[in-house]
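Anyone else keep sequences and structure tokens together like this?

Example one:
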Amino acid sequence: MQRTSCLFVLIALLLSMTAYSQNNRFSGKVISASNAPIPGATVQIKNSKTAVATGEDGSFVLSSAESQVTLVISSIGFVRQEVTARAGVAVQVQLQEDAKSLQDVVVVGYGSVRKTDLTGSVSSLKSAQLQEIPAVSIEQAIQGRMAGVQVQATSGQPGAGISIRVRGVSSFAGGNEPLYVIDGLPQFNDDVRGANGLSTINPSDIESIEVLKDAAAAAIYGSRAANGVVMVTTKSGKVGQPRVTFESSLGFQTIRKKLDLMNADEYISFVKSFYDNMGQPYPADIQNFKKTVDTDWQDEVFRTALLSNSSLNVSGGTERNRYFVSAGYTNQQGIVRGSGYKRASVRLNLDSKVSDRFSIVTRLMASRAIQNGFSPSLGDNTRNFGKSGIGSILRSVPTVPVKNADGTYTDTSPFNLNGIDVENPVAVADEVLDQNTTTRVQGGLDLKFVIMKGLTNTTRVSADFYHIRRDLYFPRILPRLGNNIGSAELGLYDKTAVLAEDFLEYRYDFAPDTYIEAIAGVSLQRDRLNTVDLAASGFGTDDLKNYNFTAANTVGKPVTEITESTLISGFARVRFNLRDKYLIGASIRRDGASVFAENNKYGVFPSVSAAWRINQEDFLKDAQWLSNLKLRLSWGQAGNPAIRPYQSLFLGRTVNTGQGAGTGLAVGLGTTFPNPNLKWETTAQTNIGLDAGFVNERFRVTFDYYIKKTKDLLALVQMPPSAGIGAGIGTGPSQIIDNVGEVENKGWELSLGANIVNTSDWSVNVEVNFSANKNKVTKTKDNKDIQASVGGNDASGTNSVIRVGEPLSSFLGPLFLGLDKNGVPMHLNVNGDKDPNGNDIIGAPDWVIIGSPYPDLYYGINPTIRWKRLSLSSIWAGVSGAKINNGGLFELTSPIVQGTYNKLKVANELYPKPSQAAGNYHLRSSRFMEDASFFRMRNIRLDYNFNMGQSKTIKNLNAYVSGQNLLTWTKYSGFDPEVNTFNGNDRRQGIDLASYPAAKTVTVGFGITF
């Protein structure tokens, strides 16, 4: 019995010792050479699967059965290090920057590559940089931060479209938007004027954004890469205990600048001055006018708007399974009452290593966004300057109140001399339904199988579905937009994109510093767009808005359409690295696209590139002051297929007509003329670049010079009148879409970086980028001008032209020479034509090039200062050399008063003697092409990272205050110089036609990690 008791005691003691040994605790902190914490570093017990990631303060904790272990610490950009650790004794590990090998990984097409091994031109932003600005959509976060990449908004409206231009524009009608690749799924930003599809993605979910700029980097995407490629990679989980991060911010937005409009007294004075100069009596309603109110319509409609943004993510995992789960909600009021943008999104990213050979990568995102607009101008006769939200604010006469005594809205064109092309802006803001609702689901699977050492096969299946519902209702109380009877529109747009790819990746290491990498695969992508457009008018009540079309007196014929397109491809790429000195790369892609004609279904897009790491040569290898010196050279071709499907086919259309025995007879009509030779626009680009780093990468320089030549540009061209057909994508008879022109872009890019101070308490870093681009049309069909106007329904006031020797969409018009002694504008009379009274006849033969909408230079400056736990970062950006066709200035300074409305105060300076004679020469001349140059504080942010001590619950806590667009220096007289009403693929560029104003914002926020 005694032996048995002793045995039990011994067993219990051994078990307790075993249990204790399994809980040996190892802790410490990982810091850089400057003693700054390194978050996200991997700490692993050598020869085991136990690993964790360091927290925001660089700390880590893990357990082991051993009392002494070897820890392996690694982090991108630092030299891997091993240290011995004993249980219960905290260690501090200082990692040295791996400047020699520049281990930063850059995402490229179908894979990633070390920055040091790049042979192409790529700009990159990582998650930490993206979080410096509280952006609502991802493209806002890169404005002013990448050389050669220009981001431009169509307006300041929340959720409005944004266009990105990579190294200039090169297309008439084929599109200038880059290709976006989100977690491997290629897609275009289809709707850049309305609901911005990219804004459905939560910026907090983004791990990195890379822009592939030259052909060597982008040609792997072949026929879609002529305008560059934007690679978006979302976050993955990291090995370690679950980490919960919550971020929230609240912003206050106000209008950046109000326009200086006339008040009631100034308006009446201007009207009287006109009649005085004309020697005519005042109209009775002007003569008898007595001021009772002085309404500032801008104050009535613009407001201080709130912007709230919250996100929650949970991440973690083991070596086998890693996860990242997030949810986000954004609510952005617009600075115009009634407008705004709301978005809710969820994401699930899983990385599973099923076995040593097989792994699965899963990406899934769902979002829903609602955008409430403010009736933007469409530039046509139905929705022109006055019949738009912002236009109505500017045109409304200040002599009337918002509402009449009986509660009805006033007529804001109260005098008989006024026109009728204006609505009450408060009524438009409060009563109009103008809403886009976007529901989007996007996801994919990557199945990776290691066939043998160095050889991996990836099968990728992805899909992207979005549904947009477009609701529009102008109520009966609006006499112009609603026609006093109510006018409704409903649009339903469903798009599904499905991608299936399979590719092999192979790497063979000849030596530690010599290897070859190759990739080859096939791809199939199919897009389908279903469209339903409905219109109706004549409603007995406004209560149901556009939700009950059967209540309308007049219902238009429904327009339904299904368009499908297919792209089938084969691609390959090879990279060779010899002794970490000589880098050679080549790629080729063959695309077959259904949108092109039978004679040109397939295109081949090759690229070659090379780089020489000069600092690895013997004569520089020991130079301590030089950490990197690389010369790059590349050439390649890429395409642009961004035209609507079926443009190469002869299509029919059914219409109702009164021909034959009765009315309403359906007749099939051919409305397009087929072009069996239609093909891609092809861009060939040559790039030479230099990368240099000094003093262990404390100072960095990147320079690129490029030449882009685009041929076979797509455009509408005139056919002989005898053809008697229309192309169906514009107006005017006898047109056909054809490959007719060539465009050249030449430019340079310079990026500078410096870590000026880097100590334990202080760091001062500066990043600067400059870009210059020269755009020139080198060929059109028969070298004839191509007008940018969309036809007889164009009410935008554009006077742009595509002309050989000039930039795309250059402004064409009369050259303003000043005022004569009677205050009448004078213009350059090229041909000297005179009327019988000896006055100049200024017409189309006198028009000359008066400006370009594209800047000569754009630049960004991004300094960051850190003192202990306090940091100050800012983003400054600017452009110079561009012009804006200021439609608002032209509309609101007319020297006549009949048929016009309120004026800008500057009208008194432009026309000190308003008269009919002056009005006859009020032309869209160089006088209204204003300098669009600006320099702006895009963002400034002050952060404080709290010391959480030994807290086991809260790993990190930081708070910040930031401001966006707080300071802007510009000569532009409109709301904002960074605007383009007809952005995207429209040929009418550089026009400000009553665009939604930009806001300046102050934001406070915090982030906490558990």
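And example two:
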Amino acid sequence: MQNKGLIKFFAILFALVSIYQLSFTFVANNIKNDAKTFANGNSEKELRYLDSIGKEKVFNLGFTDFTYNEVSDKQINKGLDLEGGINVILQISVKDILKGLSNNSKNPVFNKSLADATADLEGNKPYLDKFFDAFEANSKGTVKLASPDIFANRSLQGEGGVDFQMSDAEVKKVIKRKVDESVESAFGVLRKRIDKFGVTQPNIQKLGESGRILVELPGAKDVDRIKKLLQSTAQLEFWETYKIEEVGNFLMAANEALKKTEVSATEAKPVVKDSLSALLTDVKDSAATKKGNNPLLDKMVGQGGGPVLGLFSPKDTAVINGYFKRPEIKNLLPAELRYVKFVWGIIEKSKDAKDKEIETVALYALRGNRDNAASMSGSVVTGANATFDQLGKPSVSIEMSGQGAKTWEELTGRAYTQKTNIAIVLDNIVYSAPGVSSGPIAGGRSEISGSFTIDESTDLANVLRAGKLPAAADIVQSEVVGPSLGQEAIDNGTTSAIVGLLLVSLWMLVYYGKAGWYANIALAVNLLFLFGILASLGAVLTLPGIAGIVLTMGTAVDANIIIYERAKEELRDGKSLDEAVKISYSWTGAMRSIVDANVTHILIGAVLFIFGSGPIKGFATTLLIGIITSLFTSIFIARIFIDKNIAKKADLSFVTNFSKNFFTNFNFDFLKVKKITYIFSAVVIVVSVFSLATNGLDQGVDFVGGRTFQVRFEKPVESEVVKEELAQVFDGSAEVKIFGNDNQLKITTKYKVEEHGTKADEEVNKVLFETLKHHYASGITYDKFVNAYDGKKLGILQASKVGPTVAEDIKTNAYWAVLGALLIVFLYLVISFRKWQYGLGAIAAVAHDVIFVLGIYSLCYKFMPFGMEIDQHFIAAILTVIGYSMNDTVIVFDRVREFLDGKTKGNFAEIVNKSINSTMSRTINTSLTMIAVLLIMFLFGGESIRGFIFAMLVGIVVGTYSSLFIATPVLVDCISVDDKKEIEEHHTEK
């Protein structure tokens, strides 16, 4: 090996750099453990401890030192499935942005196009492109985007804006730029909010041009609070209000009108004697106030007064909103109320007539106008701080700009004169509606009060300081992982990694003896390099990422196996050890097979990286890095020891007494049995396709949308019983399966999955809690059931939500990923082997493997004791199977090509059979190491990746079979008779 000294230098340098990079992870983990010990389970105390030492020097290398913040930035970060925390994808509403840019246009073509674009769920096509397509189809050239009532409005005119003379193509460019600016603005606002939230190493990134923003908050635990913080648009407004006396007659008239269309309530409730009922009638127990006859008034559960029209139950707000939207009810509004805007307050606790605590929400009537604009917008706010009001309750103090202070003084002056109230409205919810009792308020200071907790007032101040979002931000995908589940994943991953490493190392020693030691040293160096690169890149380690590392152990020895097997062949042919090693490491020896196999593998990994997201991207990252480091260590590190052995003239045979006779006289006629294998594979494919058509697949929420909860109970529970209970409250949409142990269930539902916002998520969580809480004998609170905390063992350990639009995009990505991988590999093999028959044989084998795995999943998912869902992890497994199947096939094809181009005697079939038989030791060895590693991961890797590993396990077994019995026979059958005769003549001559 030339330049041996240079390779040693780089290897040592690379090892030192890797150790340096990994040292930060070691130090950071020690400090985190100290913080956990200090906090004793209190997560807030733990965060405060880490924040307090953020700028302290904690790592001294002699020539330089680092603060904790610097150390933390350089460590290998753990993904949510290992660390615990919250991961959400927010969809910035491009529809809302377009409405704003059009100045809320009433143009029917524009609004129909918005609706059509919303209804179109075509995967991976941005909403803006859908809107442009819909507008073109609806307008048919009769309406232009540059119409004055659409985008050529006053707010978009001027330099860089829209002119009414522009063509649609020109307007599209402007609108795309404006939408991008709005998404960028939203990105900045969210980043400011997250920075204030106080989690360690938050991650936020835009996902292409989709208008989606990924937010990862490792270690975050308060689910509902974080979702509110992220989704709040922070649209702050100040409205003047009507008093109950001004609106009472309309409510009475609406109630009377509703009597004619609404079915009377069947359950009598205690009569609420409040100021509104006093307005409606002076007759005690009259028909007007008799319970059961008043669709609107009967829903009132508490007394109103001043700006509050009454208190209602939160569950009735949607019904009442529906009443007010009815045309016949709107027609009852008198002229002075024609622009009224009915808005709800925040949910508060109060007591009913029986002194029982209930949740209530107040109804307000705001003084609207023709433009539906508030008296003063929140854009005037320049500062906000969490504080306490005069009663010592948490509140938010706000400061206004000069112009805002002037407007605020006018507004409060008018309220003082007219004895009205000013409603402080945030995201269409009234937080408070104070009166003004001491004259106009100067100075631009005000206070937002309500039934806040300290956390709520802090969050509200944070979002007001960060600014409002330019459009609604809906959570279209989310995942919540508890810290205890993350620790279990780490333990399972570590166990599978250690056992896998020991198993592979032991096999290399047993099979190759001294050469196996060299391969194991190369494997250890490979792992050091792999982790060092992950640390230097700031990569995030996930559970599938750990699986990728364990798989790297299996593939890391593949190149050594190919080289060693070739060296054994050369030694059997009478070559010296030096000659055998040189030939095995040459291009005509093992290098060509190694390069071809790993290039196909790298191409598959690249497809995974491009189309994958989250944990799958982490899997692809470790896989790609592992392939490169494995090649380096297998080819160069092991070679250093082998050359040293040769220089000392020590014995090295690449065999042991156990393995020396393995496959030495192996002579099987693979082509003779091709009809049998064709029939067997054809039957398998037909059965698989039939099962896929009739039985289908267990598609996970990644592909169909929905909500998934991993719930752990104190004792084993019956999944069918829980399914029946949940089906009643989730509108029949409930799938329940045992997940691992008998006391753990995986619950899937589509209930309210299309509804965005924290309200829908909270409602689903509460319904789930109320339905399942009776299964906990010791009792469990809602907070402990839903939210994550250190040491959590019961309740929701993991929760995820995938909206239908995101699911459609994931499914589309999956199709393109698989098809793209097949096409890329086919083209590479055609170029590399210079014959299309090789590419076709490989693709036939891979297609066979994919259909086989899909068939197994279709046939078995209903009764297997572990999850067999078709999701992103499964697609990653399929792509990995394609890569490894190609690996085996390429090794066989390289030997077939070598024998056909070489001096081997015999007819065409004999030459091909000899070439396949000569690869058996390599093929079986590489497959066995992979199967052993996958089996270890299947047994010890944890429930969450068991289905993922099973797909790869089946795929590797089937891939080994197809490489020998499908790929080569298809290759042979595709070669023309004339070409076969020419090859035979060539070999006869030689």
